[in-house]
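A.,

Following up on our hallway conversation. Structure tokens first:
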């Protein structure tokens, strides 16, 4: 038994954490509510609440007076979600997206920026990224001192300790010196995770997989990657390789990691080069044989038989990928996410039908409704998990409540 377990300091921290957990899980509570929830005495509860208010983690809420009530109403307390903030970053090859959230997970600001064509040099990418972060802070109306943690998603294999595995072709694109920029200069804990794994965290937190304990999320835009949650736990493996799709070259009928958007673009362009003059040609125009994925999906929706055949081929190919994920990890739900998610709805019937031919009890299939905010939302969840684990070690910046912001391009 830990000899420190009965020391006054240990008990005090245990009481603080017990009350904080209750405050974080509800809107506002009275001392009596906290006594019932924690089993602590009234004197201890009131002392802990006063301590949390003084620290900035809690605040007193208005106590409505019942009609005919005499004397002072019971004191009410609530968690101060503005005690600090977290950042969620999605660092892609072409785009950086930043979200800012309070400690309740409410997004209060954000920013987006484009990297130079073909990625650009590390110094230029770092400047663009840090500028986007500063604009997100300004949009949220907060300072660097109020940020507790930064979660960052990258399209690379990352170990469970948050280290980008060296030797990957795209790894240099994400080696931007951010640990020094954010960790040493600004004092922010910097957490790094694979983007598909963050997508899984986001879907389980706020997406179509909310609350699901056995979930797989597949980012299926340009390249395939998956995040796996098993029994409520995000899986990594020895070197972060759980869910990686590098072995698809061994799967008959698949052959590589190409995603839905890339396949639609490649096969649509090939059809144009072969002389297809249907709806894809109408959308693309006469001067190019390069078809975008969007045009292929639009042409299929308009009844173009070639485009429909392309989508059928993609669905049959994806069903083999889903069967592999189902066989290895046995999820109840597989969510298709990434830039192509909105269009992938059209593939669900064929993928579901094909998957049933490979798996005796196939999982349910769905497409993500989180759009471009999928990965940065997962990065927020990663940062919030860190804050919740280290709550009593952090120092809140006490400030007045502020109006809610919004992510640029999103509705209020």
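Then the amino acids I'd put at each of the 412 positions:
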């Amino acid at each position: 038994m830990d000899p420190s377990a009965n020391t006054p300091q240990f008990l005090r921290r245990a009481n603080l954490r017990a009350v904080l957990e209750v405050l974080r899980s509800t809107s506002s509570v009275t001392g009596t509510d906290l006594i019932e929830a924690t089993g602590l005495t009234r004197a201890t509860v009131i002392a802990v609440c006063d301590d949390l208010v003084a620290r900035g983690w809690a605040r007193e809420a208005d106590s409505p007076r019942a009609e005919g009530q005499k004397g002072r109403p019971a004191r009410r307390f609530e968690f101060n979600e503005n005690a600090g903030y977290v950042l969620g970053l999605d660092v892609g090859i072409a785009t950086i997206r930043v979200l800012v959230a309070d400690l309740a997970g409410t997004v209060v600001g954000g920013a987006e920026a484009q990297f130079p064509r073909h990625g650009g040099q590390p110094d230029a990418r770092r400047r663009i990224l840090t500028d986007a972060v500063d604009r997100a802070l300004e949009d949220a109306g907060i300072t660097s001192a109020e940020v507790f943690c930064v979660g960052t998603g990258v399209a690379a294999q990352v170990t469970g300790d948050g280290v980008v595995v060296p030797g990957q072709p795209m790894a240099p694109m994400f080696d931007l010196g951010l640990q020094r920029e954010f960790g040493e200069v600004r004092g922010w804990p910097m957490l790094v995770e694979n983007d598909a794994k963050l997508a899984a965290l986001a879907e389980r937190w706020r997406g179509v997989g909310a609350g699901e304990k056995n979930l797989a999320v597949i980012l299926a835009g340009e390249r395939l990657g998956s995040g796996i949650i098993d029994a409520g736990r995000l899986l990594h493996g020895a070197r972060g390789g759980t869910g990686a799709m590098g072995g698809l070259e061994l799967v008959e009928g698949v052959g590589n990691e190409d995603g839905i958007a890339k396949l639609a673009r490649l096969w649509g362009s090939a059809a144009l080069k072969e002389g297809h003059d249907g709806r894809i040609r109408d959308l693309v125009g006469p001067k190019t044989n390069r078809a975008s994925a969007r045009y292929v999906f639009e042409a299929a929706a308009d009844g173009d038989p070639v485009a429909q055949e392309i989508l059928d081929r993609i669905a049959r190919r994806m069903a083999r990928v889903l069967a592999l994920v189902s066989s290895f990890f046995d999820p109840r739900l597989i969510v298709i996410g990434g830039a192509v998610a909105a269009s992938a709805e059209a593939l669900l019937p064929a993928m579901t039908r094909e998957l049933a031919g490979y798996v005796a009890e196939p999982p349910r299939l769905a497409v993500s409704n989180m759009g471009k905010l999928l990965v940065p939302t997962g990065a927020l969840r990663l940062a919030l998990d860190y804050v919740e684990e280290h709550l009593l070690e952090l120092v809140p910046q006490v400030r007045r409540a502020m109006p809610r912001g919004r992510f640029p391009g999103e509705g209020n």
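The radius of gyration is 25 Å. Curious whether your intuition agrees with the design.

B.
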